[in-house]
Amino acid sequence: MLEGKVVAVTGAGRGVGREIALLCAAHGAAVVVNDPGVGGGGEGGDAGPAQDTVNDIIAAGGRAHANLASVADPAGATTIIEDAVQRFGRIDAVVNNAGILRDTIWHKMSHEDWRAVIDVHLNGCFNVSKAATPYFREQQSGSFIHFTSTSGLIGNIGQANYSAAKLGIVGLSQSIALDMARAGVRSNCIAPFAWSRMTASIPAETPAQKARLEKFKAMSADKIAPLVVYLASDASAEVTNQIFSVRKNEIVLFSKPRPVRSMTKLEGWTPESIAAELIPAFQPSFARADEVSAHVFGYDPI
């Protein structure tokens, strides 16, 4: 599917990113494996994970190069794309997978925890995508594959920073898809359900939380990679501006926000008439106030 292509995958030293890099290489792509090897909250750094993925790709007969830059740094993000072009001659697809978590309940969230997560997820997507854009425009082709989350699409407890970043990525992807369509460039999002270092940090104190975590453990990271390979390939030339999700062997297409109900009052609305007429009419269509992804996906994937 990717013979002759060059793909850059961020956060590819471990977990979902590693599986994506391995499968892209198995399908013929040369892969820039980006990962600074930081901890789950963005601390430290280790060249080992990125190099391990590269070594495994090369051992299987593929082509790969390790890049240790932080996507949060615009100059570092640019090196990811420059490494692809200088070492392999071009760049065909960007997989924005890198991420960190600094979960905490809203009233305890610090400015630093907010900025750190936004910088890696949302600004990181912008930085790497921006660096690849001139090459995509020149060659009149390219694919952006951004990783969002149901934490952003639906919401989640204790993840205001992560949720905001992940929904922001959807907005970014949609605008890129519209702006770059004339250049033959596409942009799509994937919300993965998979067991990784990041999902391992989900609290599991109550029996219900522990049961939910066990379900996550059955959703292996390698299940996400086939959709990424497809979206990076020429076979997906007509697929852009979409939001997908992968839950084990299930692939989901998400709708975008659309009007659900409307009501017109010819004489105009007052606060009192909103309370008396509008809200009672709208209430049956309200999303539940405590809704999280478990309410939307009320069944186990196979």
In short:
This is SDR family NAD(P)-dependent oxidoreductase. Belongs to the short-chain dehydrogenases/reductases (SDR) family. With 302 residues, the chain is an alpha/beta fold.
Overview of the molecule:
The protein is an alpha/beta fold. 42% of the residues lie in helices and 15% in strands. It has helices at 15-26, 48-59, 74-88, 111-139, 150-153, 160-180, 207-217, 225-232, 271-282, 293-296; strands at residues 6-10, 30-34, 63-67, 93-96, 142-147, 185-193, 243-247, 250-254. Helix 1 packs parallel to helix 2, helix 1 (15-26) crosses helix 8 and helix 3 (74-88) runs parallel beside helix 4. It comes from Glacieibacterium arshaanense. This is SDR family NAD(P)-dependent oxidoreductase.
List keywords for this structure.
alpha/beta; 302 residues; eight-stranded mixed sheet; Rossmann fold; NAD(P)-bd_dom_sf; SDR family NAD(P)-dependent oxidoreductase
What does the radius of gyration come to?
Answer: 20 Å
Uncertain spans: none
Structural class category: alpha/beta
- The level 1 CATH classification is Alpha Beta
Query: In angstroms, what separates the terminal alpha carbons?
Result: 26 Å
Q: H/E series, N to C?
A: EHEHEHEHEHHEHHEEHH
Tell me the CATH topology: Rossmann fold
The tally of structural domains comes to 1
Number of strands: 8
Assign a percent range to the helix content: 40-55%
CATH superfamily: NAD(P)-binding Rossmann-like Domain
What is the count of helical runs? 10
Major sheet description = 8 strands, mixed
Percentage of residues in DSSP E strands:
5-15%
Strand arrangement in the largest pleated sheet: 3-2-1-4-5-6-7-8
From the coordinates shown, what is the CATH architecture?
3-Layer(aba) Sandwich
Average pLDDT, rounded to a whole number, is 94
Estimate the global geometry from the Cα principal axes.
Answer: globular
